[in-house]
Design brief:
Pfam families: GDPD (PF03009)
Protein name: Glycerophosphodiester phosphodiesterase
Number of domains: 1
CATH class: Alpha Beta
Organism: Hymenobacter rubripertinctus
Radius of gyration: 18 Å
GO biological process, one term: lipid metabolic process
Largest sheet: 9 strands, mixed
GO molecular function, one term: phosphoric diester hydrolase activity
Shape: globular
CATH superfamily: Phosphatidylinositol (PI) phosphodiesterase
């Protein structure tokens, strides 16, 4: 097994910070993930009406976790009307997405929190790492682009990518960043734009790896599959292709132990505290 594809213990990637413990994609979750000792912070980015790079999983305010600026709950049937791509960031910041506990994460501690800008998250974590005397954290940044989403919820992929890369250059974190996407168009545009940036293709279907690589047109540095898709055969195929394995989202301790047996490069989890305990 190539040492370039494995580690003594996989990198611990804090999913949306540490979603199992604190509200996803918020400053409290990112700070806690860093304090816990994650190797990499995973987060999602979308674009606002004024072309700011906003940290959010959806390009709208999710009814499951967000409240209006007036503090009211958002109805599921109407959540798409709270479209981040149609709102300037100053307005986005008025919504709260931390006081409503995510129904799937009973251990999550609600705290007031807004959707931050990417530059705010990175600046905060770089400063906190220095205060803690720890090595700078890595960044796993998912571009939440999707076919059919533009022009309603996002700009065209080329514009989306240009905005994100501009932020990464300004923040000077490119050497510690991997760019992720389910949208192959984003990765296809990123490869010639910045050939040295590691790219991760995310998958959640049972199509063969060869099919995905053929559609993509090149071999990404990393594959990020739903951990339920993992098999020894897929692990062997990735080693043959010299592609690193970083599955998501592995939360149960028994599942973590099963995934560890496949010697992945990293593991993405909502509960980095559980994976850190195994390390």
């Amino acid at each position: 097994m190539s040492s370039a594809l494995t580690r003594p213990f996989p990198e611990i990637h804090g999913h949306r910070g540490c979603r199992g413990l604190l509200p996803e994609n918020t400053m409290p979750a990112f700070r806690e993930a860093l304090r816990l000792g994650v190797d990499v912070v995973e987060l999602d980015v979308v674009i606002s009406a004024d072309h700011q790079v906003v940290v959010s999983h959806e390009p709208w305010m999710s009814a499951a976790i967000c409240r209006t600026p007036a503090g009211a709950a958002i109805a599921a049937a109407g959540q798409l009307r709270h479209n981040l791509y149609q709102l300037p960031y100053a307005r986005i910041r008025e919504y709260d997405c931390g006081l409503t506990r995510h129904p799937s994460f009973p251990e999550q501690r609600p705290v007031p929190a807004c959707k931050p800008l990417l530059r705010e998250v990175v600046t905060e974590l770089e400063n906190l790492a220095r205060q803690l005397g720890r090595s700078p954290v890595g960044y796993s940044i998912e571009v939440k682009s999707g076919e059919g989403e533009e022009p309603q919820f996002q700009p065209p992929p080329a514009v989306f990518l240009k905005l994100v890369l501009a932020e990464l250059r300004t923040l000077e974190i490119l050497p510690r960043t991997t760019l992720l996407s389910f949208d192959k168009r984003v990765l296809q545009l990123a490869r010639p734009a910045l050939p040295t940036l590691p790219l991760c293709l995310l998958i959640e279907d049972k199509l063969p790896l060869a099919h995905h690589l053929m559609e993509l047109g090149f071999r990404p540095e990393v594959l990020g599959p739903d951990f339920g898709l993992l098999t020894p055969a897929l692990g062997a195929e990735l080693r043959e292709q010299h592609i690193k394995l970083v599955p998501w989202t592995v939360n149960d301790v028994l599942d973590m132990q099963r995934v560890l047996a496949l010697a992945p490069w990293g593991i993405t989890t909502d509960y980095p505290n559980r994976l850190l305990a195994l390390r």
